[in-house]
């Protein structure tokens, strides 16, 4: 009898090394009850959905977990479909710093880049 081979599915979001480092930096100064950092897509902004990254203190049943060198990165279970295939980066320049997303599911975004639509 042959063993069934299971294929590990790729993460919904790929974090660049800069994004992984930022997760590590956030976890290094996280509140005591934080178990990781979580990405979600709440409804807000002029295009409908926004990216939100926050500390998380408890796991939810359908959240996706991605182990990074600096801690666990969670993706909200209700947001995964909007984010599959995305790349998350951390970008800093003289005037701003923040997570930047390349999302193949986004059909449009607002002018300021704060929200998107699928």
Termini separation comes to: 45 Å
Helix fraction bin: 10-25%
> Which strand order spans the largest sheet, edge to edge or round the barrel?
4-2-6-5
Instruction: Give me the count of strands.
Output: 10
Approximate shape = globular
| Integer-rounded radius of gyration | 15 Å
> Low-confidence parts, pLDDT < 50 over ≥5 residues?
none
For the biggest sheet, the summary is: 4 strands, mixed
Strand content: 35-45%
SSE sequence, one letter per element: EHEEEEEHEEEE
Kindly state the mean pLDDT as a whole number? 84
Number of helices: 2
Structural class: mainly beta
Care to describe what's here?
The chain has helices spanning 17-28, 80-83; strands spanning 13-15, 36-40, 49-50, 52-56, 64-68, 71-75, 86-92, 97-102, 108-109, 115-117. A hairpin with a 5-residue loop joins strand 9 and strand 10 (115-117). The chain is mostly beta strands and 118 residues long. The strands form three sheets. Strands 4-2-6-5 form a four-stranded mixed sheet. Strands 1-7-8 form a three-stranded mixed sheet. The protein is globular, with a radius of gyration of 15 Å. The termini are far apart. The protein is built from two helices and ten strands, in the order βαβββββαββββ.
